[in-house]
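User: Teach me something about this protein's shape.
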Amino acid sequence: MAIALDEEQKRRRTGNRSLHVNALAGDLPDQCLRAPPAMHISATIPLVASPAFAKEVAFIHDEAHLTNEDIAAATGAAPSTARAWVALTRVPSGERARRVAELSALVERLLRVMDPEYIPVWMNKPIPALDDEKPLGLVARGEYRRVAEVVSALEEPVAA
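Assistant: First, the predicted structure itself:
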């Protein structure tokens, strides 16, 4: 399923980025924007809205049976926003896109070790190995790695 954007939506989505770049550059000519060879410039580039992130949300919703409310809680979005992501009418960006990517990575791994219908239960219940914290809450706070370590333990074969 592809997200089709009309011209107005495209203009709105790219227009803000163009204005931001022009404001930073001060509408200077290209030669003024180049750094001297000995100078290194670095910047953190925020994740740009991509339909792929919305497709990941739909995957999380459909395959792992997480509700719009679960997805919203894990990403810091409103349930209505998560619903729009699942419907592929809006796309997450920035920190919310990062949380979607982390949640999707966890779901992919959990699907290999537990029944998909149990994933929402596991994600919403206090887990002793996580100091009785809920995995969704940890993902929301950016503590993906703590949850991933517990999932990693679930993935290891049990000795007979």
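Now, about its shape. Residues 47-155 form one domain. Residues 94-113 form the longest helix (20 residues). If you'd like, I can walk through any region in more detail.
User: That's plenty for now, thanks!
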